[in-house]
Amino acid sequence: MAAKQPPPLMKKHSQTDLVSRLKTRKILGVGGEDDDGEVHRSKISQVLGNEIKFAVREPLGLRVWQLVSAVMFSGVAIMALAFPDQLYDAVFDEEPVSSKTPIRLYGGALLSISLIMWNALYTAEKVIIRWSLLTEACYFAVQFLVTTVSLVESSRIATGAALLLVSRALFILISVYYYYQVGRRAKKV
Fold first, then answer.
1. Domains in the chain, number
2. Residue 28 lies in a domain
């Protein structure tokens, strides 16, 4: 018996047949909307994710505030490390402190925080920006409380300390504002 020749291959016209293409894409799970309302062009974009949804919608002035914070933390840290007596006198208007070690340790801690602020300035990741803003707000809140308790204990309010309290309260408000603004979800159009 002679082997039967297979019929000639028929070319599918799925490239031009719109209904067939839509059925194929539906079976593959591409082209439809996901839970966030995003349309995936391919299975790869579904697996890897779409980096656009992780992009930060930056509020106006965020980068300026981050720069000001980084410069401020660095400046106070260098002043605490190099000139501890002058920093203490500027805040409390009292006799010189007996030991410079605590103020220099404070400067070292501020220098570490300033490194976080500088790195957060150059990132576009939402989580890192939010954590740096939260760190900043917590630092200012602790400093506000410690300064307030110190002033109440000494029962003397220095002009520098009062100015420090007002500025710290303002810095807390600004940091918390940007923290919540960065965390907001972008509105779908």
1. 1
2. no
pTM of the prediction? 0.65
Strand partners, 33: 39
Domain carrying residue 153: 62-183
In a domain, 103, yes or no: yes
Q: What are phi and psi for residue 39, nearest 5 degrees? A: -100, 120
Separation CA 163–CA 34 (nearest Å):
52
Long-range interactions of 71-76: CB distance < 8 A, separation 24+? 73/110, 73/111, 73/113, 73/114, 73/117, 74/111, 74/114, 74/117, 74/118, 76/107, 76/110
23-40 tens-digit pLDDT: 666 666 666 666 555 555
pLDDT per residue as tens digits for the range 39-90: 556 655 555 555 555 555 788 999 999 999 999 999 999 998 998 888 777 6
